[in-house]
Amino acid sequence: MSSETPDWNAPGQGGGSARQSADTQQGSGTQQGSGTQQGSGTQQSAYPGGAQAEPPEWRGQQAPVRPVDEAATKVTGRRVIQYVIDYILAGIVPGLAYWLLDRGSGFLHGLGWLLATVIALGAYYWYWVERPRSHGGQTFGMQLFRLRVISKDGAPASRAQLFVRGILLLVDTLFFGLVGFITIICSRYRQRVGDHVAGTLVVRAHDQVAR
Fold it and tell me: Which residues fall within 8 angstroms of residue 209, CB to CB, at 6 or more apart?
């Protein structure tokens, strides 16, 4: 029996196998680290020029609407004439209704007055709310002078907004329209009282409206 200690460095011995296994693992680790770095470089190059991806909360949603340009609201002169024409046109049907129905005495007079009032309110509602809503924010006077009513965020004015600004014409026309006129010229976006409350603007008709 030989008492010599085996040479673990000799070919075919366990030491060689262990060293080969360690080298293999080291090489594999080096390749894996290089692959990780290479993958990281690929991920960074997916955004040319350092551009960022779209925020997740905006995906599938409409982007925020741009604010309205202040210059588009500088139409005060046209608005004054437009309101005069619109008041004349809006008062035709109510005037005829009161002239035809508000007659007689007693019960018939009261009934005629009530019916004329209902017709007048319906005509005013259609003229200042439904007509602009279905015609791009324009009354007949606005269409003539190339103006339109829009929401302050640039979107089309809603029925509720048109209704509020229509009701507040009662305030804006006080003292022969001076309340509305002074409010307009003192406002950055040329808004009368009704526009401030309803959140609307009057702009040139050719300006783009967000959809």
Answer: 136, 137, 148, 150, 154, 155, 156
- Give the pLDDT confidence score for residue 198 in this predicted structure: 97
The pLDDT of residue 207: 61
Would the pLDDT of 49 be above 50? no
Q: Binning pLDDT at 50, 70 and 90, where does residue 138 land? A: very high
**Tokens, residue 57:** 């909360």
Quick one: the chain helix, strand, coil %, rounded to 5?
A: 60, 5, 35
Answer yes or no: is pLDDT of 15 > 60.
no
Enumerate residues 6+ apart whose C-beta is below 8 A from 68.
150, 152, 153, 154, 189, 201, 203, 207
Q: How far apart are CA 68 and CA 202, in angstroms?
A: 10
Cα separation, 45 vs 72, whole angstroms: 43
- What residues contact residue 58 under an 8 Å CB cut-off, 6+ apart? none
Q: Is residue 187 classed exposed, middle or buried when 0-12, 13-18 and 19+ CB atoms within 10 A define those classes?
A: middle
How far is the CA of 39 from the CAs of 7, 13, 97, in angstroms?
44, 39, 80
Q: Where are the domains of the chain?
A: 73-204
CA 118 – CA 102 distance, rounded (Å): 12
- Average of per-residue pLDDT across 143-171: 96
Give the Cβ contact number of residue 127 at 10 Å.
22
Mean pLDDT over 122-150 rounds to 96
H or E, element range at 17 = helix 14-44
